[in-house]
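Anyone? Bumping this.
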Amino acid sequence: MGRRIIFTGGKGGVGKTTVTANVGRALARTGKRTVLIDGDVGLNNLDVVLNAEDKILYDVGDVARGRATIKQSLVDLDENLSLLPSVTACSAFVTREIFSEICKQLSKDFDYVLIDSPAGVEESFLRAVGAAEESVIVATPHLASVRDGYKTGRILSSMGFSTQGLIINRIRGDFVLDSAMLDAGDISGAVKLPLYGVVPEDDYLNVKNLCDFSDKKSASAYSFTLIADYINGTDKKLYDYLSPYRGLSGLFRRRIK
Ligand SMILES: Nc1ncnc2c1ncn2[C@@H]1O[C@H](COP(=O)(O)OP(=O)(O)O)[C@@H](O)[C@H]1O
Ligand SMILES: [Mg+2]
């Protein structure tokens, strides 16, 4: 059975969808069969981020109503990478039980089922997390996000999640070196979760949503590759977000920024 992992974190806009999509792509590149599913049923955007809108025939709502099978609804995105879309307007049909059962069925055919969580901690969040066995909190280095990450982690612990990790998104090494931003260790300590990875602020990611794995200089692509290795358990290296800003050239880069 594949691993069912929810990417969550309380706040909207911290990068849950971006991280789910890119970690999924990175895992697929390691040869793991990976399926992505949007837990924000009805207010979906994972399909948009993945440029998959035009390829959707059926979705999770059709599966819930018996109009299509899971197999018919899957969109092939890339080698080893699929999406189960959640575009339905009738999200009421997709109960917690049905959503959870669909994810369990997916875990029979895939190594990873990655669930993109909606914001908040209400019903749609509970539906999404109810389908997962492991959780990853996505937080930015901002205090409000760190606090929400901590609270969400506590809620998940109380729900019985024993395997939990943290991904810090949008960190800026120049700000950290200038003591204007919390560093990754401090954030991990405050959220009280082990760090699975760090993703730097990246203009390319902001505009395109998907990092460019073919660009050897792409810091975000490298950081997602490291996160995939961390989740696979093949390597435990974290992206060094300070390295571009160290030394004389780093100082120059910081001043220019
Ligand atoms: N590391 C990053 N660097 C730059 N922009 C990012 C990064 N991660 C996310 N973003 C941008 O932040 C916005 C919100 O991200 P999104 O993944 O939709 O958040 P959420 O799913 O938590 O609401 C998007 O415009 C996205 O492109
Ligand atoms: Mg989202």
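Late reply, but here is one note on the structure posted above: The longest strand covers residues 163-171.
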